Amino acid sequence: MSWQKWLQERRNDPDFLERKEVPIQDLNDWEIDGDGRLSRREGGYFEGVGIEGKAKNGKIWDQILLRQGVDGLIFLIYTRRHYLLQAKSEIGNDLNKNFMLLAPTIQASATNLENGNIKYTEMVGDQKLIKVPQDGGRFLEKFNLYGSLRVPSIASVVKHKNFRWFTVKEITEAIQSYDINEHLLQMLGFLSLMT
Fold first, then answer.
1. Hey, CA dihedral for 10, 15, 20, 22, is it positive or negative?
2. In this structure, what CATH number is given to the domain that contains residue 103?
């Protein structure tokens, strides 16, 4: 089965059905605390904080940045010729693609890792991890840990439903059709540094 057909099958069974913008004060699981930070009522994930900046020329501006207290994990399992990717849903992804794009084998926040529902984390061992700062225009001092593991063969890894082995040619096609997310693109760029 082609990767396009496989991905479309995943998209035909989406994790999210719809998305609509609502006022922040109408969100059930979020609150603005006494210090003016936007955060989940139960904690975890991230919080929105107000930042005031001052430029060298004296110009002052303010903006909201997202702060996540601990590092996330971006991890890719691969063989000599194949890469294990996942079809990952994120509510902010393209609605026309049913919110689903191709992502690294593991792409998880620390909160999701702690919850224990992320596939393949048992394969993350003593591999070299590279700590990479994330977009400072959106995130406050945010880092992700990037790592990889080369396995001897496709058969040596149990494959789960939303995961598929891809060749370099298939990944190139996915890049050209806007079907990969930024973490996978970064991971592919860092792969040569980590092997």
1. negative
2. 3.90.79.40
Strands (E), 41-118: 47-54, 60-67, 72-78, 83-89, 100-103, 106-108
Residues 104, 35 share a domain: no
Do both 101 and 180 map to the same domain?
Answer: yes
Q: How far apart are CA 61 and CA 35, in angstroms?
A: 19
Is residue 132 a contact partner of residue 186, using CB atoms and an 8 Å limit?
Answer: yes
Residue that is written with structure tokens 């989406």 in the block: 14
Distance (Å, rounded) from C-alpha 183 to C-alpha 72? 11
Residues 91 and 43 in one domain: no
pLDDT for residue 195: 59
User: How much is the pLDDT for 157?
Assistant: 93
Series of mean pLDDT values for 10-residue runs along the chain (195 residues) = 94 81 89 87 85 93 88 94 94 84 94 86 87 88 92 92 95 95 91 68
